[in-house]
Automatic annotation (TrEMBL):
SUPFAM superfamilies: Clavaminate synthase-like (SSF51197). It comes from the Eukaryota. This is Non-haem dioxygenase N-terminal domain-containing protein. Signal peptide: none annotated. InterPro entries: IPNS-like_sf. Residues 1-27, 39-68, 309-332 are annotated as: Disordered. Residues 18-27, 39-65 have a biased composition (Low complexity).
Length: 367
């Protein structure tokens, strides 16, 4: 397999403290989260713990996200920005990815999951965050995280469709990032540095007999924009800061979720979705489902900080900055940062190994 350094530049870091030291309250919360994860599901807290996430939410009916056609992405996203920024997700239709390519990529992915354990370890060795991992403690679902090239040490597997699908999904993600940055009047970091973002392909297989559960919710890796291809019309749940939200999208559309890095980049204006969608399965179902998501994320060595306003030329020929005037502006009219800068590597390591903590993991970095 090609080294993860191609996408992440170096392997797993030791669990060192973040450059921004947590408070005693935050440390206590982290300890409580780890203890709760070791409890049996029946004893787990009713907060945002994996046991809750695997149960189907009965608190609200399934909703349809705001629909934005890719062919009119910039205009429609600008007009729906107040709604999208509060929800943290929308449905993208009329994109350029052929359904035939998506289904060929799905077939490639199924061939990987049908490998023996020895072949999996040989072809896709674990190198954090890449490789196979159990999605939850009940072994209902399992995930495979691949770099943007879908690298493998195998010369026998043909993953050409999966690689092409991953490349095309990333292109869509970069277009969404540019449209989102433009709508918010923020600098797009990719504009000056194409290597400012990278991507991960996250494939999950849910199999076996189920008992009215939401599945595949435990694993958590930070990202800017998540793209989740809808192979079939199937409801799923998104974990937002206000709780679980059941949603349903059209077949062959792409569910777009805004991640924790997008919230920081927007200085808190964009609400986030934690992790990726959790598929719903009917009680007594004995089928196998596959979900495929591309995460537009950051290289490990990155520093996460709110983005600067996008430059604009004023009527006098000078350069102005988009001025988002609100209660968060200081006396000079400059917007105060709601987040301190922090190491992406430290943050990614923490949230990946803690799975979904009880407390918002971004709280420790807020001013």
């Amino acid at each position: 397999m090609a080294s993860p350094a191609q996408d992440h530049h170096h392997s797993a870091p030791p669990p060192t403290p973040s450059t921004t030291q947590p408070t005693s309250d935050s440390a206590a919360t982290d300890l409580l989260s780890r203890l709760l994860h070791r409890l049996p599901p029946s004893l787990s807290s009713s907060g945002s713990t994996p046991s809750l996430l695997r149960r189907r939410s009965s608190l609200s009916t399934t909703t349809t996200p705001p629909v934005i056609p890719f062919t009119d992405l910039n205009t429609t996203l600008s007009s729906l920005l107040p709604t999208v920024s509060q929800l943290g997700y929308f449905e993208l239709t009329d994109h350029f990815i052929p359904s035939e390519l998506a289904r060929s990529a799905e077939s490639d992915s199924l061939s990987i999951f049908n490998l023996s354990s020895n072949q999996r370890d040989q072809y896709f060795p674990r190198c954090w965050p890449l490789g196979f991992v159990d999605d939850d403690e009940d072994n209902i679902s399992e995930s495979l995280l691949l770099d943007s090239s879908c690298s493998t040490d195998s010369t026998e597997l043909s993953l050409s469709s999966l690689r092409e699908f991953t490349r095309e999904m990333k292109k869509v993600g970069l277009a969404v990032l540019e449209a989102l940055s433009c709508a918010m009047g923020l600098q797009n970091p990719v504009q000056d540095d194409p290597d400012a973002v990278t991507s991960l392909m996250w494939i999950s297989r849910i199999c076996g007999s189920f008992d009215d559960k939401m599945t595949g919710s435990g694993l958590f890796y930070p990202y800017v924009v998540g793209l989740h291809y809808q192979f079939r019309s199937q409801s799923c749940s998104l974990l937002t800061d206000t709780g679980l939200v059941p949603v349903s999208c059209k077949t062959d559309s792409i569910l777009i979720t805004l991640g924790d890095i997008a919230e920081v980049w927007s200085n808190g204006k964009l609400k986030k979705v934690r992790g990726k969608p959790a598929l719903s399965v009917e009680e007594g179902s004995d089928t196998t489902s596959l979900s495929m998501s591309v995460l537009v994320t950051l290289p490990l060595e990155s520093t996460v900080t709110p983005l600067s306003p996008r430059a604009a030329i004023n009527n006098d020929g000078g350069i102005d900055r988009h001025d988002n005037k609100n209660e968060d502006c200081n006396e000079e009219g400059r917007e105060e940062r709601l987040f301190n800068s922090f190491s992406f590597e430290d943050y990614a390591w923490r949230v990946y190994h803690e799975r979904l903590p009880l407390k918002d993991p971004l709280n420790r970095y807020k001013n």
